[in-house]
């Protein structure tokens, strides 16, 4: 079992950790299959809340937004404890937990982090939203290093680990591309698709990939401080996009700010594009050198002026 210093008041967060640490391979496979079924049901309904792989949220209640985790169980534990999400959700409060993707790879607890995130989705289906990151990308764009298959085999054995990874691959294909919080923010993992002409391009980016670059840019791109246009990304995928791209797509979405992850920074968050972009990073474990892991906890009923107005609501753990 993984161990680290924890508060004595973890309560049901601790129970989740125990389940993740001791889950039998068949339990994990069953959980993945059930969450796939839940996601299919949500997306098949195509209600006013879900369009393709785009979630529309009303500006009400509380949202806790979590960036890259990369197998960092300690930071996830502290975020769940600090946010109070489990207790609030169990009481039926209007709360949401939004993950911006990159659940595994690099960190040693990638299997456990995936298990916990999926258990949260199963338990609080309407309150948990799972976005797709570049480490959950399509098979023609697998991030490197991709440690998760190795970690699963080490934990569960060659045969079971291979089966779990295959099922997770199916799950990744059903994760959401983006979230729009009405009048407030658009949330993606990486960047905004520079050639998008409507919100439908974001909602159905998984269907137009790889003919169109929308999904690649949403998973891989980063903001640059150039005011206009795009540049090739040093990542080898996605683009570096300018302020004009951010302003155009946020205007299309009818929101004030882009909230994304994908990039580590020393303080675990940063603001770009004249306050139009907030980047969150929720792990500070190797190979990353940032001081903290960060998450955002906001009252959605309150207006968002820009990313600078969100700084007071960023929580740092480390």
How would you describe what is shown here?
- By secondary structure, the chain is of the alpha/beta class.
- The protein has eleven helices and 15 strands.
- It has helices at 12-22, 25-45, 73-83, 85-90, 110-123, 148-156, 158-172, 199-203, 205-208, 214-220, 243-253; strands at residues 50-51, 54-57, 62-66, 95-99, 128-130, 178-181, 185-187, 222-223, 230-232, 239-241, 257-260, 269-272, 277-280, 293-299, 314-317.
- A seven-stranded mixed beta sheet has the order 1-2-6-7-11-13-12.
- Strand 6 and strand 7 form a beta hairpin.
- The radius of gyration is 18 Å and the shape is globular.
Which helices and strands occur, and which strands form pairs?
Elements: H1 12-22, H2 25-45, E1 50-51, E2 54-57, E3 62-66, H3 73-83, H4 85-90, E4 95-99, H5 110-123, E5 128-130, H6 148-156, H7 158-172, E6 178-181, E7 185-187, H8 199-203, H9 205-208, H10 214-220, E8 222-223, E9 230-232, E10 239-241, H11 243-253, E11 257-260, E12 269-272, E13 277-280, E14 293-299, E15 314-317
Parallel strand pairs: 2-6, 3-4, 4-5, 7-11, 8-10, 11-13
Antiparallel strand pairs: 1-2, 3-14, 6-7, 9-10, 12-13, 14-15
Helix pairs in contact: 1-5, 2-5, 2-7, 6-7
Structural class determined from secondary elements: alpha/beta
Give the biggest sheet: 7 strands, mixed
Strand order across the largest sheet = 1-2-6-7-11-13-12
Number of helices: 11
What is the CATH topology descriptor?
Answer: Purple Acid Phosphatase, chain A, domain 2
Mean pLDDT: 93
If you compute it from the alpha carbons, what radius of gyration comes out, rounded to the nearest whole angstrom? Answer: 18 Å
- Which H/E pattern describes the elements? HHEEEHHEHEHHEEHHHEEEHEEEEE
Query: What is the number of domains?
Result: 1
Just give the CATH class.
Alpha Beta
Q: Extract low-pLDDT stretches.
A: 1-10
Bin the helical content.
25-40%
Distance between the termini: 21 Å
Q: Which architecture would the CATH scheme give at its second level?
A: 4-Layer Sandwich
- Strand segment count: 15
Q: What's the overall geometry? A: globular
| CATH superfamily heading | Metallo-dependent phosphatases
How much strand content do the residues show? 15-25%
């Amino acid at each position: 079992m993984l161990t680290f210093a924890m508060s004595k008041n973890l309560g049901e967060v601790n129970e989740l950790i125990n389940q993740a640490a001791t889950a039998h391979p068949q339990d994990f496979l069953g959980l993945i299959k059930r969450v796939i079924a839940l996601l299919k049901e949500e997306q098949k309904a195509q209600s006013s809340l879900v369009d393709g792989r785009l979630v529309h949220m009303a500006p009400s209640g509380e949202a806790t937004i979590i960036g890259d985790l990369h197998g960092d169980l300690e930071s996830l534990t502290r975020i769940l404890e600090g946010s109070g999400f489990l207790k609030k959700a169990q009481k039926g409060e209007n709360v949401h937990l939004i993950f911006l993707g990159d659940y595994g790879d690099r960190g040693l607890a990638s299997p456990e982090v995936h298990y916990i995130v999926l258990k949260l989705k199963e338990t609080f289906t309407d309150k948990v939203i799972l976005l797709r990151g570049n480490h959950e990308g399509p098979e023609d764009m697998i991030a490197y290093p991709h440690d998760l298959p190795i970690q699963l085999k080490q934990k569960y054995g060659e045969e079971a680990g291979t089966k779990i990874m295959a099922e997770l691959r199916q799950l990744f294909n059903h994760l959401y591309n983006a979230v729009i919080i009405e009048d407030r923010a658009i949330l993606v993992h990486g960047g905004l698709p520079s050639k998008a002409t409507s919100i439908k391009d974001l909602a159905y980016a998984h269907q137009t990939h790889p003919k169109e670059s929308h999904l690649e840019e949403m998973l891989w791109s980063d903001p640059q401080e150039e005011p206009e246009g795009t540049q090739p990304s040093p990542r080898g995928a996605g683009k570096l996009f300018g302020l004009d791209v951010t302003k155009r797509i946020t205007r299309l979405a009818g929101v004030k700010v882009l909230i994304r992850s994908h990039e580590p920074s020393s303080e675990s968050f940063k603001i770009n594009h004249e306050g139009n972009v907030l980047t969150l990073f929720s792990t500070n474990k190797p190979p990353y050198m940032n001081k903290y892991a960060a998450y955002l906890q906001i009252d959605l009923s309150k207006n968002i002026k820009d990313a600078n107005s969100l700084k007071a609501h960023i929580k740092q753990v480390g």
